[in-house]
């Protein structure tokens, strides 16, 4: 959340609104009486150009030990970087694994990338670090897969348009034709690849051709086919799935029916990275809502749709902001 | 929620799926292996025609006293009605006001309406009842008003298309032009009525002409103008508003900014009936989400958009299902 | 919740406070300036004697069909009863099972019990009803079982003392000695029955002797032994258990460790009726709380203790208020 | 939460249970079949002695600028400290105020305190830092104040006994006599200081004598008297209050009655630092629960009691762990 806090729009200041403390000389007087005008002016303008272009996120994992934070922050200081946010986690203080995400702002970063990375890799070697750096200006290319349910897919596309998700949508792939109209209206390419038990290998090959090398993330927005282990191996990028239950409860097919039959008092949704084992991958985000004995399976599905939309969007956003690391089947979400 | 439980789709039975207990002879075997096919078949077909056409909801309020439930249920029984759900509430068991909502199924209801209502009005007189009856087949006509924010408006329209909201959308009225494209794409009439301090009375008169006599409900889906007392009086139907705070906290303008400044740890949204007093009308639905010190005002707005969508949709759905009664500034939501 | 709404304390009226609308002539002026004095006076006095003594709750289940509500409410009206609250549920409107809970107030109920029940059993026969009647003045006798964790046990005893739980505590049985001091201080009998693999049958027989015929409910307040099917059969009353996970996830031993290892983002607690199959009985109540990657197993246990206390207390309260029916492995909680 | 993650009990390892990944050679086989035995063995032993004795928490605030994190982490590295957790926040990336909390483990810390602090104060001067250091082994001395409601007070005392709250309870002060028995049973001194409008100044002076110089924190566990500005000034330590509403809604007296009258659909509780202005101090923690039209004021109070207990305990715990900083009326809770 922190990294969004800078680059406050200048129009807010022109209004005399200073959010983080400070003076606020008659907000209503300056901006006129229209609540909506002010609201739109103050907060909905995009981040100024000097922001994203110079921001990067550094993700690190290595054996824990003394001096890591000091070395990294000293390095960034010497490079002239200003740390915007920094989070760390260690599985154990003495013999654990250490994880760190640091977002920093570095003027002229675009010119200094190569030397920055070369020098950091020296430091990384010393501590035995796995590390990656992401540049905020390089928005991730994302392929979306869906079947016939539109709620997760349209919600992601709407959030993308609103500016909530820093991504480029490469295409939508569906095993059904239904959602083409909606998707194409938004200017996004739609590929219909039908899947039957016999055609599945061929269908997956087709999908791979559209995705491999073109997308850095695949999001299964209620794609109701199980992807093969081979597909997951060959796709070459993370795959986020939304499962319509509170995993590990009701893994597998028809979770709402089974939730109904079991009589649970809360239903949930789970966004996770897809792995070979169905519905067993690292969990990124979950949420639940209270239900009662009077809810039919249809009611559970309706309530669940809202959960699925929210949970998937939060997980995708965390991934796009480079906040998620995976360690021994669990996620660290900074 | 209860009234949705009958009229289970016949296709579920063909699949051998019997939800409320009973046999379920190899669900997967019968329906094939496609999770999405089965899912769609079983639960997403609309209610069969014999359902809505014959269902009505009776809303009653009267001074509490013995024999009311007995009289109403006896009356319905004699008419041949089958009670689908029934809820009641009394403000006090001895000298309170009694409220009741009964949904019932009555074959041939469409032919018997006049005699049914005439006979019930006799009973109602005996107990001094205020009462109304609503027929499920007569979907309420709804006018939507918005400004520039699209999230509440598009969400309502999407839910309408999904079949989640039993309404007919009469038109969208906005004081801005921005949302026309999205709305018209969905086949809904869009009226742009600009509002300035000077033009407000004229603008409200224009809106009244579009609404009065045509709509049975007005929904303010982030309409950022304050409607005058005169408008509310003349519009002749309930008006539901979504306020972007947990009322009564942060009534008035810019609730997210004020929530930020006050440092609350949860932000909320409130759907309420609009009354003369701004943000003081009877609350229909509220919800909140946890936030932290690192959230900027923009973050609060983003999180808040999701709350606003959900809370407004739930309130509108409760109203459309005739579940909301108002008594002394508070709602009873059955 | 409804049945608590009547029997408002007379002291509130003396203060001039009329809650459900009506006049309130300067609340502060009459009662003086002490917030705590007024608060205590107005709301914390026990229900007046004329309340509980005359209240009963009628629970019904039978094949659904027309005329049930009419017949029951007509019967109550003729008996002179005033319905305080009434809830109903049907698994299917045409061929389902119908459930109903009606709380009513009947002056002189204690004298009329036998005739009331005899007459109602006639009506019940007509509709093929299973039915039971509970009299609010007859508080249920409850045996509590615990091991070494004190949080659930002490919380139930504290709520009992506060008047939140309408029960009589028969005794506490534990397979450990630790909690004796705390329990006996509250004037409750404490029986230490150690359990080893060999002594288990004998230990269960001892417990049965303390419970059978004396308790109408057994609550397992973190009792960490699995009760045998024979025990459950012979105990002759419902047994409520609290499981420290969001069932059906993490049934069985060490749910917090397994939740940690799976990396879930929410942990939960589940109160359910104990059945032969461990952790598979009908769920009465559940709740969850958000956790993150930084939570150790100890943290999950700490957070979980709060969930366990709340969820168990709510379930026990619902049971004591005769709000829970069981049908095909699911609960209906009115 | 992070700082609790180290110092894992050695007994867990003896069981062959390695929580953070690693091998786990048949957990059930090694530890025997008793779920409760294992559970207690693995997780409920206290932190080993080498933990708390050597841990400190450094809190910093200063004008934001480059090099702060680098300087602090370099300093800690040179001192031989191992950072256990570190959190930071800046109100603005360029001209904001910077906040940091770092927990670190330093062998022989007890011997090196003076030199450590002297050297750090040099660094602090360079950056214009406000800073404080807290040593985990020095548990904060806390005075509790209550009136007649026991739920918040007993809950804090129970958590203290469970080891959830790192504090020493200096005494309990109440303006009523009721809770003496419960408190003294736990070995805590109980002072009854009655308060009337006339005696208030004298009563506050008495309380100050018991608190000043002896307590580092005062917790108002439903103390129903408003403390004077003079008291707050002279007490010389932070005062945490629990307010029984979702502030800023329903500040002042009788929030549950007012919540009832307003018809809110959620009720809440708020823990905040007490300031001169009643119920307007910096908010530390809040939570809410859903309620409905059928809840009486008594029901709201009962539900609210659970909220109050939880919210106050979380706030006190955060304060005791030195996680809370205050800036311009808002808290930063790391």
SSE topology sketch:
The structure is a homotetramer of 334-residue chains.
Chain A: H1 10-14, H2 27-31, H3 35-43, H4 49-52, E1 55-63, H5 68-79, E2 82-90, E3 97-105, H6 109-127, E4 130-135, E5 140-146, H7 151-162, E6 167-174, H8 180-185, E7 190-192, H9 200-211, E8 217-220, H10 229-235, E9 239-243, H11 255-262, E10 266-273, E11 283-290, H12 297-320, E12 324-327, E13 330-333
Parallel strand pairs in A: 5-6, 5-8, 6-7, 8-9
Antiparallel strand pairs in A: 1-3, 1-4, 2-3, 9-10, 10-11, 12-13
Provide a descriptive summary of the structure in words.
4 copies of one chain form a homotetramer. By secondary structure, chain A is an alpha/beta fold. Chain A has 12 helices and 13 strands. Chain A has helices spanning 10-14, 27-31, 35-43, 49-52, 68-79, 109-127, 151-162, 180-185, 200-211, 229-235, 255-262, 297-320; strands at 55-63, 82-90, 97-105, 130-135, 140-146, 167-174, 190-192, 217-220, 239-243, 266-273, 283-290, 324-327, 330-333. In chain A, the strands form 3 sheets. Chain A has a 7-stranded mixed beta sheet with strand order 7-6-5-8-9-10-11, sandwiched between helices. In chain A, a hairpin with a 6-residue loop joins strand 2 and strand 3 (97-105). In chain A, helix 5 (68-79) packs antiparallel against helix 6 and helix 7 runs parallel beside helix 12. The first copy, chain A, is globular and about 60 Å long. The N and C termini of chain A lie close together (9 Å). In chain A, 50% of the residues are buried. At the C-D interface, helix 3, helix 7, helix 11 and helix 12 of C face helix 3, helix 7, helix 11 and helix 12 of D.
């Amino acid at each position: 959340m922190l990294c969004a806090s800078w680059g406050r729009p200048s129009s807010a200041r022109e209004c005399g609104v200073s959010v983080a403390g400070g003076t606020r000389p008659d907000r209503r007087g300056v901006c006129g009486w229209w609540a909506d005008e002010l609201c739109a002016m103050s907060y909905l303008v995009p981040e100024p150009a000097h922001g994203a272009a110079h921001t990067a996120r550094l993700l690190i994992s290595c054996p824990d030990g003394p001096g890591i934070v000091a070395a990294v922050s000293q390095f960034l200081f010497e490079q002239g970087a200003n740390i915007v946010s920094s989070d760390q986690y260690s599985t154990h203080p003495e013999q654990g694994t250490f994880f760190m995400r640091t977002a920093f702002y570095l003027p002229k970063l675009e010119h200094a990338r190569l030397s920055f990375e070369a020098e950091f890799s020296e430091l990384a070697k010393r501590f035995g670090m796995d590390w990656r750096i992401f540049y905020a200006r390089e928005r991730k290319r994302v392929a979306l897969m869906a079947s016939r349910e539109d709620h997760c897919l349209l919600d992601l596309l709407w959030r993308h348009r609103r500016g909530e998700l820093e991504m480029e949508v490469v295409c939508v792939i569906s095993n059904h034709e239904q959602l083409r109209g909606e998707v194409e209206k938004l200017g996004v390419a739609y590929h219909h690849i039908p899947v039957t038990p016999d055609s599945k290998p061929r269908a997956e090959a087709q999908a791979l051709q559209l995705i491999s090398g073109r997308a850095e993330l695949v999001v299964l927005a209620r794609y109701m086919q199980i992807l093969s282990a081979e597909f997951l191996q060959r796709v070459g990028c993370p795959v986020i799935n939304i499962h319509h239950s509170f995993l590990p409860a009701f893994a597998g097919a028809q979770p709402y029916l089974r939730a109904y039959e079991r009589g649970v008092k809360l239903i949930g949704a789970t966004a996770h990275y897809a792995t070979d084992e169905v519905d067993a991958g690292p969990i990124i985000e979950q949420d639940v809502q209270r239900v009662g004995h009077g809810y039919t399976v249809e009611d559970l599905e309706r309530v669940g749709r809202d959960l699925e939309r929210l949970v998937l969007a939060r997980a995708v956003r965390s991934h796009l902001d480079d906040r998620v690391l995976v360690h021994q089947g669990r996620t660290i979400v900074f």
